[in-house]
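Need the bound structure for S-adenosylmethionine, inputs here:
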Amino acid sequence: MQTVKVSDTPMEFICEFLTKAKEIADGNSNIPEELRVNLQKALDIACSLDGYLEKMSSQESAPLAELYKKSMEHNWDKVFEEGKTQFRLPKECITGLVEGQTLKMLVHMSKARRILEIGMFTGYGALSMAEGLPTDGSLVACELEPYLKEFAQPIFDKSPHGKKITVKIGSAMDTLKELAAAGEQFDMVFIDADKSNYINYYKFILDNNLLHLSGVLCVDNSLFKAKVYLKGTTDPNALALQDFNQFVSSDPRVEQVIVPLRDGISLIRRVPVTPAWAGTQKKVTDDEVFWGVNGRSILDRMRLDGKVAYVTGAGQGIGRAFAHALGEAGAKVAVVDQDQLKAECVAEELKLKGIHCIAITADISKLADVEVMIDSIVSKWGKIHIACNNAGINMNSASEDTTLEEWDKTFSVNLRGTFLCCQAAGRVMLNQGYGKIINTASMASLIVPHPQKQLAYNTSKAGVVKLTQTLGTEWIDRGVRVNCISPGIVDTPLIHSESLRPLVQRWLSDIPAGRLALVTDLQAAVVYLASDASNYMTGHNLVIEGGQSLW
Ligand SMILES: C[S@@+](CC[C@H](N)C(=O)[O-])C[C@H]1O[C@@H](n2cnc3c(N)ncnc32)[C@H](O)[C@@H]1O
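Answer from helper R.:
Posting the output first, comments after.
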């Protein structure tokens, strides 16, 4: 039996009516050829659009393709007649490829981590959105029909993203109440259930703060087969959506746009509004605490877009993590290392993440190398806003055996090198009237780590802290802040050396946090110190050691 395609979207209706008109025209010899030709052109434009969008959009994953096929082939009338579903479910209500990919794109663009879907059907939209979530992201899908959870779950289980989805069976409004009572909040909400309740879902979500302030609310079918804007509509669902669209468009708490994709998707975002508390003692203090400094919320104030940074010792370990963190936060990054290959490898990694970067080879203990490094960055990008002087070395020896060579070598990289970099970058920054210098010191500047013996290292790092304090106070009134980070014992390739490995167990018993530091534990600190959010901080030694220096 051939299934007749039922028009469901404005474009499908245009196509259906144009096809009928063309048939009439073709059957009537009095119709001028020009009208026929123009009808055919309109038909080609209208009827080829959806297919083209499907072809050009990124293709669905194998589990999504399977879900779609299974949903289309299922006999929904039969399961309804057998009493397995409360309602007769039309398979056309599935979101499908273009809408699914649109939702997934919105998840990426809004950087959503928590999503709420109201009306899951067989889970095509849910799985599409889950695919866009980070590994620790989650999606709650509300669905009335228990049958649909059983239908979708085996395919969710086949997808690496399925475990992000929790299906809540029952009336969506009951689930919303439950979520609100638990204080839940979502970055993205997709409303796609019973149309007559759209307005209730919307009001409940906004009134109960279920949508994060910077979140996005997507609403499906907001054009409802074009009936929302055609006169004389009597369809109760279309009337419900008409009221819904009207209500949202005049709601001062949000901004909205209706995108004419498929049956229409409304994109709605919350905007901060000054509440009308006239006549009460409550009032909004109209200041930067309320609106954010320069209108930027605290997380935005840690962004480094447009900034130029360099990181020395960026070929591995802490420096590599710093380079990634600064780049992820928006800065252009010069990856500096004395090992050319390592610098180039990390620069390649950054490029893969879309970060502007260059690789520079320099031995920071040599004045000439430092000058070339600074000149190359300035000639490439014109400025230096962020200088991460991170390169350092550590050699172990009992103090009575420490050779002058070891002492000089350690000091020439750790202290002389840091000074050379601070001075060269500082000169550029003082000229600009702006700069953030972040030196890598060490917990060894505060305590004497043991049992390993590292006199030269400890002393040089204490010198880095004093260098930081002195420059930090000398340059702040000219816009240059100098701070340092003192990591505890970091799990880097360095500590896996033959000589240090046996000490790890010993160190662990000295660390309240019960583990060594990871380079990723230090990334937020460097971004904070590099950003304008830390502008009042200078000469500070930011210690990140899992509490080790306190025991
Ligand atoms: C348009 S379909 C959803 C399509 C789905 N979002 C997708 O991506 O394919 C609507 C779904 O909402 C469900 N539904 C209808 N009324 C509901 C309610 N009051 N509470 C929860 N789910 C409901 C229906 O059972 C149906 O599965």
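Comments: The chain has a mean pLDDT of 95. Residues 163 and 206 are 28 Å apart (CA to CA).
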